[in-house]
Amino acid sequence: MSNSMQQTREFLAHLGMPPGDDYQLPTSTRRFPDGAQYRWEVPGIQGPAAMRALLEDSETRGLILHRVTQTKGIMTLTDEAIQEMVHLARQAQVELVLAVGPRSTYDTGAMVRTPEGMRMGYRLRGQEQIVRAIEDVKRATGIGCRSILVYDEGLLWVLNEMRQAAEIPADTHFKVSAHCGHGNPCSARLLQNLGANTVNLVRDIDLVMYAAVRQAIDIPLDMHTENPASSGGFIRHYEVPEIVRVAAPVYLKTGGSVAGTHSWDTTEAEARKRMQQVALVQRVMDAYYPDAVRSERGPRDLAIPV
Fold it and tell me: What is the CATH number of the domain that holds 72?
């Protein structure tokens, strides 16, 4: 190893960062506030009907669900739909996450749909889009939602400033999307410093990379156990026990293989199929890491308004 590279690794360690990917794969000692290592999340639930079907199927299967995420955007929901989803979340004691609506794919700039422009992801173009996104968040939190899916680091920063200034409720949680494209410990630390409560890294992060990221941050990680066809369609069920061991606390995002794309408009039947995928991954957890601790229903730190 060259002296220069060793100096780089030492400087990273001085900053509190891992000096490289962690091939030792140590067991994470970090936990959710209730002592659990993992929780279940089902993404892509775009409205009340699909959410109701999902929660009903969860009850039928006797499976605990901790988080339901809508991805199309707050701007696509009526006030009545948001109110119903908030009500369903309270009844079932699950966290409801609503996505910021105005973003580049909804904007006038066609560049984002080109091979070069795709690198922008779902970030925001111009300050007017920041203003509109904030209005989206203020609307959702005003109706009672307390968890927001964010696609832009600048928006995350200003929303955290607003949370600290009591411009939005202090108990609002911010979840950073995988579509921001972050996949290393330094980026994860940056997002934590900007106010993220949970971070979804890019979908194909290796186990040794998860282990390194866990050294850099305290907040939970969100991990796709499977993916829509548009994101590669790969399924990681058998990797989940080891990912939970080294990266805890982890939200296991499950059911994505049912969808064709990120903002897939999940039907009621597809919502039940997503819950079936949770059952399949729970079987893997029970078989290969039975000692792992899962959160019970409605732990106190879930962002559920009262």
Answer: 3.20.20.70
